[in-house]
Structure formats: structure tokens, C-alpha cells
Write a structure and sequence with these properties.
Elements lengths: L1 H9 L2 E6 L4 E8 L4 E8 L2 H10 L4 E5 L4 H10 L3 E5 L5 H4 L6 H14 L12 H6 L1 H25 L13 H11 L3 H34 L15 H11 L10 H5 L4 E6 L2 E7 L5 H15 L7 H11 L5 H23 L7 H32 L1
Parallel strand pairs: 1-4, 4-5
Antiparallel strand pairs: 1-2, 2-3, 6-7
Length: about 375
């Protein structure tokens, strides 16, 4: 109750806001939990400014969502303290039998009044970071659209008995034109030409965004250069990781970054039962997917020899259910920790650092054993003499 007393002394007004897309439900309570006002406001900056002016220095709780980044920053700039709740953790809200926006806002106000840790609060990135992430997200959208168009073209022609070659994605349109022209399919080429033009345009836009991402690394995020030393980590993955973490010192224990990106198993332990569950998939989905893709490359046929690869192959060699998939996730988690440690310590990447350390330790043990054996032989010789 000591924590609650500190909260109620500092904040005379506590506000819960259930965010929507057009309108938001608002519940205002005093420090004793008594409801002062319940209403609905329009999703406009002026309405939030009016609410902050009406209840200055309030403690405000809201769920994470599409509008929560800019709204939380707006309230903070107006002098209010904002707690952004993790929606995945609020069973009291999403499993409520009488769920509605007004009751959700009321529940947020009550929970933050008792203990803000009950909301599993999250911290949004800065507006600058969010803006710099736009190029990466748009590139991801264009890449997915290009894949969908290519798949549509390939499967449509496959139904006619035509199997197009499988070059790199960026050169698919050129290869498709060449194949159809040389195999006397001019009518089909005319039919699918609009799709091939779309693929060409998407590839050109993706290339421009790639240049923009590299430029951002060179001019603004030089510390994103170091993660690119790891084979399998390109500019997109490096910048995405840096923008998502934002502050390398936010993790006292570097291994916590694995949980931050949802790469650790969920847990359901009770008594003697401790189930093996899939990963939590919390945090930034885009960065998690990029880390997994990098891990797949490291463990793939063209992956370089390094500590990460050796670690993953050892796990995969154990066999068992989905051993390879588990190895990929484990390498992705270890890769995230490695990138964070390199950033925190400002150190370069050493592919076989652990292997060299193990070899050095083994040689030292063998040398010590040999010296000990030699000493015993000398003592025996001296004793015999």
C-alpha cells in the first residue's frame, strides 16, 4: 500500500482512456477511485489538449494501439504522466464478460490507481525513431506485394503447363519475358505484361528505399554499421534492430533483449508441471522476423563458419521434434544478444571468438598436464638416483 499512497499523493486525478479509431472512451476518477466523469471524445488533438487542461498533472492510462504513440507523447508534452498498457497482458479487460469501451476505460483507471505494474507498461519509441522506421516498413510492404504478384504470375502460367524459371526476385520480370519470347508464347506475354511492369516498378521503388536506408546508416546511425559485420545481417536488419532497441543501455542484462523481441519460450508452470511452450512472439514482429531470417542464412548451405553456426548445428544435431526450427530460434536469440553486446561495448565482431577461447583453454590445460607429468617424472628420477 506504500506505493499506492505515493501515487495518490502525487496525482489528484487518474484518467483511463480506451483508444478507438474515431472516438475514445474516457473515465476520470479522483485519488480515492470515485468516478468524476465518463465521456467519449473525438480523435482530435484539440480534444486531448482540452482534457489535459481540464485535469492538469493527471496520471493517464491507455492501451497500446495505433494511436497510442502520438497521443501519449502529446499528453506528456502537456505535463501529464502517461502509462501505456500492454494489451496482451490485460486479461481483466479482453476476457471481460461485459466488455465495452466505457468499462475498459474504467478498468484502466482502476488498475493504474492500484499499481501501474499491473498494466505491464511499455515505452514507445521517440517520434524521430518512428519516422525513421517508415522507410523500413514501406520497403517491407513493397517486398510482400512483389512476392504476391510474382506468385500470382507463376501459378497462373503453371496451370497452363508453363513453368517459369526461378531467378532472383529482382530479375524475375526480365527472365519471364525472355522465357516466353523464346518459347513462342507472345500472346501470354502480352497478357501478363501489366503484372511484369508492376514487378519492375516495385523493384525500382525497393531499390530506392534500400539506398535511403543505407544513407540513413551512413549519415545518422553510424552505430548500425557494426552489426553489418555479422554475415547474414544486412542494412535493413541492422537499422531495424538499432531503431527498435533505441537505447542499448535499457537492458542491464543483454540476454533480456531476446525476451524483448519475443524469442524466448512462454512458460506455464504449476506444481510439478512445467510445459514446453512456443516462443512468446512479443515485441516488434518485423525485427523478430528479420533476426530469424538472418539465423536461417547462418545455418543454411552458404552460412559462414562461426560460433553462431556451430552452436545452431549442435542443437539441430540433437534431433527430436522440430529440432531445426528450435535451432533457428536459438540462433536468432543469440544473434540479438550478440548485436546488443557489440553495441554496448563498442567492439567488432569476431566470428570464432568462443571457438578460439575454447582452443586456447584446451591448449593451456594440455600444457599444464604435460608440465605436471614432466615434473612427476623428474621427481621419480631424482628419487631413484
Amino acid at each position: 500500500m506504500k506505493y499506492q499512497q505515493n501515487i495518490t499523493k502525487q496525482f489528484g486525478t487518474i484518467i483511463g482512456i480506451d483508444l478507438g479509431d474515431i472516438r475514445h472512451a474516457v473515465c476520470v476518477t479522483d485519488k480515492g477511485g470515485n468516478i468524476l466523469e465518463e465521456k467519449s471524445i473525438i480523435n482530435r488533438r484539440e480534444c486531448f489538449e482540452e482534457l489535459a487542461e481540464q485535469y492538469p498533472d493527471a496520471l493517464i492510462a491507455m492501451e497500446v494501439g495505433t494511436h497510442s504513440p502520438w497521443i501519449s507523447r502529446l499528453f506528456a508534452s502537456l505535463g501529464a504522466e502517461v502509462v501505456v498498457a500492454n494489451a496482451r497482458k490485460l486479461r481483466a479487460i479482453y476476457q471481460n464478460d461485459r466488455k465495452c469501451d466505457l468499462l475498459d476505460a474504467r478498468m484502466l483507471a482502476k488498475l493504474v490507481r492500484v499499481d501501474r505494474d499491473l498494466l505491464s507498461p511499455i515505452k514507445h519509441s521517440s517520434e524521430e525513431t518512428q519516422r525513421d522506421f517508415i522507410s523500413i516498413k514501406l520497403r517491407d510492404t513493397l517486398v510482400r506485394q512483389r512476392v504476391n504478384v510474382i506468385s500470382s504470375v507463376r501459378f497462373t502460367l503453371k496451370s497452363l503447363g508453363i513453368r517459369l524459371p526461378a531467378p532472383s526476385t529482382s530479375s524475375f520480370a526480365k527472365a519471364a519475358r525472355h522465357y516466353l519470347q523464346n518459347n513462342d508464347f507472345p500472346e501470354l506475354l502480352t497478357t501478363i505484361e501489366p503484372c511484369l511492369r508492376v514487378i519492375d516498378e516495385l523493384s525500382a521503388q525497393i531499390k530506392e528505399l534500400d539506398k535511403k536506408i543505407v544513407k540513413a546508416i551512413d549519415e545518422k546511425y553510424q552505430h548500425a554499421q557494426r552489426p553489418r559485420q555479422v554475415d547474414g545481417v544486412g542494412p535493413v536488419t541492422a537499422l531495424s534492430f538499432v531503431l527498435a532497441v533505441e537505447d542499448p543501455n535499457r537492458f542491464p542484462d543483454p540476454r533480456d533483449v531476446g525476451a524483448y523481441f519475443g524469442l524466448v519460450p512462454r512458460r506455464d508452470q504449476s506444481g510439478e508441471s512445467d510445459k514446453q511452450l512456443p516462443i512468446s512472439k512479443a515485441g516488434n514482429q518485423h525485427v523478430r522476423r528479420l533476426l530469424v531470417q538472418s539465423a536461417q542464412y547462418i545455418l543454411g548451405h552458404y552460412g559462414p563458419d562461426c560460433d553462431l553456426r556451430r552452436y545452431g548445428l549442435r542443437l539441430a544435431a540433437r534431433g527430436g521434434k522440430a529440432a531445426k526450427k528450435k535451432a533457428v530460434i536459438a540462433v536468432a536469440r543469440k544473434l540479438a544478444v550478440l548485436l546488443l553486446v557489440m553495441w554496448q561495448t563498442d567492439s567488432d565482431y569476431e566470428p570464432l571468438k568462443n571457438a578460439k577461447a575454447a582452443d586456447a583453454k584446451k591448449k593451456a590445460e594440455e600444457k599444464s598436464k604435460a608440465e605436471k607429468s614432466e615434473t612427476i617424472c623428474e621427481e621419480k628420477t631424482a628419487h631413484a638416483a
